[in-house]
Amino acid sequence: MVADEPIRLGLIGTGLAVEQLHWPALRRMPDRYVVTAFADRSAEQAARFAAYSGVDGSRYHADHRDLLARDDVDAVLVSVPIPVLYGIARDALIAGKHLLCEKPTGTDEEQARAFLDFEREFPDRVVLVAENYFYRDDIRHARALLDDGAIGKLHLMAYRRAGQMVPREGRFNGTPWRQKPQYRGGVHLDAGVHDIAQIRMLCGEVVRVHGAVQWANSTIDSPSDLALNLIFASGAIGNYTACYSEVPVPEEPNDMRLYGTEGVLVLSGPERERRVTLTRADGTTRTDVFRGIDNGYYGELCDFADAVRHGEPVVGTIAQSVANMRIVLAALDSADEATVVPLDVPVEGGVPLWRPRGAEGLFDGLPGEHENSDKVTVDTRPWSP
After folding, report:
1. pTM of this prediction?
2. What are 173-203's pLDDT values in tens digits?
3. What is the mean pLDDT for each group of 10 consecutive residues in the chain (385 residues)?
4. CA distance 26 to 245
5. Using an 8 Å Cβ cutoff, are 154 and 260 in contact?
6. 268: helix, coil or strand?
7. CA dist., res. 110 & res. 33, Å (int)
8. N or C, which terminus of the chain has less Cβ within 10 Å?
9. CA distance to 176, 177, 187, 191, 379, per residue, from 182 (Å)
């Protein structure tokens, strides 16, 4: 394909992830992508996609293999249930297509290793596993602050996620395959890998984990709670707590706090208004506010397009996704065996910091708003009991 022409993209799976996450970004990128075909086992779901996207219904295929046989598809976005990700991803690579694939890399350790084999089997294909947290503006900004030494040496991480999770129509937790998952760990492998991606991006690689789980949600056939202690290669320690409750819970901060020798960094706020607050050793603070940043899907698609058209390396590699997945699996192993589980450092150099191609800043050309404010904290006295 010509480097500056839009990538001819085929969509395999047109469900909620495409409707709510990928399509809102794709429609803003006509210079990078044109959807030339789409496939879904559900004709009703496919018709819904055609209606809201404007893509001609004649480009629909009930069988993904018919889409892969088309000459007018350069790359595919595979967004299907986790148990069938691997097989369809492999079909796409065999058909000669570049691959943007939803996470995680399969259902268990065996499939994770099979995904890793793609890098050896198909070296001429671009493969990006869709971990949007690697591309989220607030997380990338926090990473840049850490790289600049804003809090000194990290020594402690605390990350909490808690909220009610019961099946509701039109939401991700309402899909039947998520209620009775055919993949290890259920919600902690499906959604939890995002939080692990954030942890690895900001804290570095994990070398040991000790986890415990609870089954306290009768609406999902998987552990609802995970408490995980982590030790990082840097020597820092951390705790990650995830609670997917069946009953309503009080409003939770759901934030990540990073404690360093020279300051503290807090990532907080809902999707509509992400905040990164730096408290320095002298008591001054700076808060950066991000609105309308789309959670990183736009940046993810930029990275994939630049790899396909210009040969740029991607951040969301198979190896990075497998590294996220293996921490979740190790946490489950630890809970099953009531022991500390060691981990090999999986990716040399950790997670790279993505920047838009050709941009000087972190946010050039990306959607959303970013503002910041500095202020002096009133009370800087040390705490005492």
Report:
1. 0.94
2. 778 878 788 899 999 999 999 999 999 999 9
3. 85 96 97 98 97 97 98 98 97 98 96 97 98 98 98 98 89 79 92 97 97 96 96 97 95 93 97 96 96 95 98 97 97 98 85 95 94 62 38
4. 33
5. yes
6. strand
7. 33
8. C
9. 11, 7, 11, 15, 52
Tokens of 95: 């058909």
Structural domains present in the chain? 7-133+298-342 (3.40.50.720)
Q: In what order do the strands lie in the sheet with 7-12?
A: 60-61, 33-39, 7-12, 75-78, 98-102, 127-130
Three-state secondary structure readout of 183-251: CCCCHHHHCHHHHHHHHHHHHCCEEEEEEEEECCCCCCCCCCEEEEEEEECCCCEEEEEEEEECCCCCC
Closest C-alpha to 99, from 84, 80, 77, 116: 77
At 370, give phi and psi (nearest 5°): -135, 125
> Distances in Å between the alpha carbon of 174 and those of 94, 170, 280, 294?
33, 7, 43, 22
Q: Which of 60, 21, 56 is nearest to 43 (CA)?
A: 60
Residue 127 neighbours by CB distance under 10 Å? 22
Sheet holding 341-342, edge to edge: 341-342, 206-214, 225-232, 237-245, 154-164, 256-260, 263-268, 273-280, 284-291, 369-376
Alpha carbon distance 43, 38 (integer Å): 11
Listed in sequence order, the residues at least 6 apart from 373 whose beta carbon sits closer than 8 Å to its beta carbon are 286, 287
Beta carbons of 203 and 238 less than 8 angstroms apart: yes
Q: What is the DSSP letter of 22?
A: I
The residues near 3 (Cβ < 8 Å, ≥ 6 apart) are: 309, 310
DSSP structure class, residue 59: G
Torsion of CA 351, 126, 106, 267, to 10 degrees: 30
